[in-house]
Amino acid sequence: MPSSTVENYLKAILRLSDESPKEELVPVGKIADALSLTPGTVTTMMKHLGKEGFIDYQARKGVVLTERGRSTAVQVLRRHRLIELFLVEVMHLDWAHVHEEAEVLEHVLSDRLVERIDEMLGRPAHDPHGDPIPDAKGVVREDELRKLGDCVPGKYQLVRVARDEPEFLSWLQSQGLRPGIGIEVVAADSFAGIVEVRVEGAAESIRIGEAVAGVLGVGPQ
Asked: Residue 189's domain spans which residues?
């Protein structure tokens, strides 16, 4: 089983790969920034991961996950997201504070225990933040979502929150904004970067800036 350090590297590369155009190498500098490490430290680890068959490392160009590396990273992601949901649904922890707990637990839970959690939760499709949970075979169901900031007036469902800072999530919750809630875009001012929305069941609308609207993924209601 890979060490927790190796798993963290692979998970970071997976995330950066998914954010980049297909077939594009992930620069070492981006990995260093994502993990708050020096490029030299990351380069040393990239050479090690390359020898272990987790990545294809091209000096001064970047890296790409091999099939083995991607499979390992996806399973870490699966454990993380199932743990987050377990902590919210079973342990009743606040969704704003489960990310850091899952960061620790994702490296120590066995595959057998993760499978039992998945079964207990009813094979869920999403974690508390709306991110898709890979199945046991590593298949990730991709939702067709739009950023709230790109929406025209109409009714939608909030599906995903792409930021996990506790303070930010707590603020969203105070506004009634959590994955699964219905919302109505009342007005959108693209020049000012402001979206006015009404949360399902609320009497008054709220105004959201582009920084927030850009990390909220919505789908049809």
From this structure: 146-220
95/163 Cα distance (integer angstroms): 12
Buried b (16+ CB within 10 A) or exposed e, 97-108: ebbeebbebbbe
Q: How many CA atoms lie within 13 A of 68 on its CB side?
A: 11
- What is the spatial distance between Cα 134 and Cα 161, in angstroms, rounded to a whole number? 17
Q: How many CB atoms lie within 10 A of CB 94?
A: 13
Put simply, whether the predicted model's pTM sits higher than 0.85 gets the answer yes
Determine the Cα–Cα distance for residues 71 and 79; give it in Å rounded to an integer: 13
92 assigned to some structural domain: no
Give the number of other CB atoms < 10 A from CB of residue 90: 11
Residue 21, in any domain of the structure = yes
- Domain boundary among the residues 44, 65, 86 is at 65
In a domain, 15, yes or no: yes
pLDDT tens digit sequence for 107-153? 999 999 999 999 999 999 999 999 999 999 999 888 889 999 999 99
Distance of CA 201 to the CA centre of its chain: 27
CATH number at residue 193: 2.30.30.90
Q: Using CB atoms within 10 A of its CB, is residue 124 exposed (0-12), middle (13-18) or buried (19+)?
A: middle
The length of the chain in residues reads 221
Amino acid at position 182, single letter: G
Whole-angstrom distance, CA of residue 208 vs CA of residue 195 = 5
186 domain-assigned: yes
